[in-house]
Design a protein that fits this description.
Order of helices and strands: HEHEHEHEHHEHEHEHEHHEHEHEHEHHEH
Oligomer: single chain
Helix content: 40-55%
Number of helices: 17
Mean pLDDT: 96
Strand content: 15-25%
Shape: globular
Low-confidence stretches: none
Number of strands: 13
Largest sheet: 5 strands, mixed
Distance between the termini: 42 Å
Strand order of the largest sheet: 2-1-3-4-13
Bound molecules: 1,3-dihydroxyacetonephosphate, iron/sulfur cluster
């Protein structure tokens, strides 16, 4: 049954000239029908490269908006319209405009997990995999980093010569993990390496053997000589790794690391969207695209 749905999706996407992009947090059966799977940075690069006229995003809203900004001539769908990002939704233009007035000589660096509307007033975007490199490449010493204070704190540690102002925002799924969760996981699996996403709190990140984006964590674990890993990001990643490397063992840092927004998209949603019965077409007005795409282009240039 599942296989039949997958076969139908694969048949239809060829027939209708559709490209399916999926973030690495999506479930296994979606990854199997996708043309490309990756982290936020890799997905934004693929958005430009895709040859097809229509792109379906299996991920969250800001990712579909990024595709639309980079390829405005394409028809872009967010496969499940309810898939938002709690972090992107917590910071708006009004808050950042006020901060810009308070810190006029700061370069505004926006994590890509922000709305298209907010990006219109930011200078450059970063992702978890590109943030350190990009901040290092910015000439200005003074950086206003929005909205993830944990990723911002990690960047500050890697770029000590920069003066980074942080704001109070972040990912509820990653930020709720504490040092005592790490202690517990390490006690249960004393021989395991600990790999973590920089959206976690500094007290968690500083205990890691490796810090990286979703794709970087997967890549590191696949290539590593080690055989056991504690995975400190959304629990889909340790599950995918267990499929990919059955000879190794992967443990979740906490059973609570679940992003409902990333889990909401199903294979049935993909079939519905491809059949024109579901999904939401992403429409952005040309003025928003013109203003917001600048900071994504800058990210690609500096990254
Ligand atoms: P990545 O860029 O590492 O894929 O992160 C996206 C995200 O939403 C993590 O919570
Ligand atoms: Fe947003 Fe956090 Fe979900 Fe990533 S895990 S999509 S940052 S809410």
């Amino acid at each position: 049954m599942l296989r039949d749905v997958q076969d139908e999706i694969i048949r239809l996407k060829k027939e209708k000239d559709i490209c399916i992009l999926a973030h690495s947090y999506q479930n296994e059966e979606i990854l199997e029908v996708a043309d490309f799977v990756g982290d936020s940075y890799q997905l934004s690069l693929k958005a430009k490269e895709a040859k097809q006229g229509t792109v379906l995003m299996c991920g969250v809203r800001f990712m579909a908006e990024t595709v639309k900004m980079l390829s405005p001539e394409k028809t872009v769908y967010l496969v499940n319209p309810q898939a938002g990002c709690a972090m992107a939704d917590m910071m708006d233009k009004e808050i950042v405009s006020q901060l810009k007035e308070m810190y006029p000589d700061y370069t505004v660096v926006a994590y890509i997990n922000t709305t298209a509307d907010l990006k219109t007033i930011c200078d450059v975007c970063v992702t978890s995999s590109s943030a350190v490199k990009i901040v290092n490449n910015i000439e200005n010493k003074n950086i206003l980093f929005v909205p993830d204070c944990n990723l911002g704190a990690y960047v500050q540690k890697q770029c000590p010569e920069k003066n980074i102002k942080l704001v109070n925002g972040g990912c509820p799924t990653h930020a709720k993990i504490t040092a005592s969760d790490v202690k517990k996981a390490k006690e249960q699996h004393p021989g395991a390496l600990f790999l973590v996403h920089p959206e976690c709190q500094p007290e968690v990140v500083e205990q890691a053997d490796f810090v990286g984006s979703t794709s970087a964590i997967m890549d590191y674990a696949e290539k590593s000589e080690a055989s056991e890993f504690i995975i400190g990001t959304e629990n889909s990643i340790y599950q995918h790794l267990q499929y990919k490397c059955p000879e190794k063992r992967f443990y979740p840092l906490s059973i609570n690391m679940i992003c409902q927004n990333m889990r909401i998209t199903t294979l049935a949603d993909v079939l519905d969207c491809i059949n024109g019965r579901g999904g939401e077409q992403i429409l952005l007005d040309p003025e928003t695209i013109k203003k917001a795409v600048g900071c994504i282009d800058k990210m690609i240039e500096l990254g």
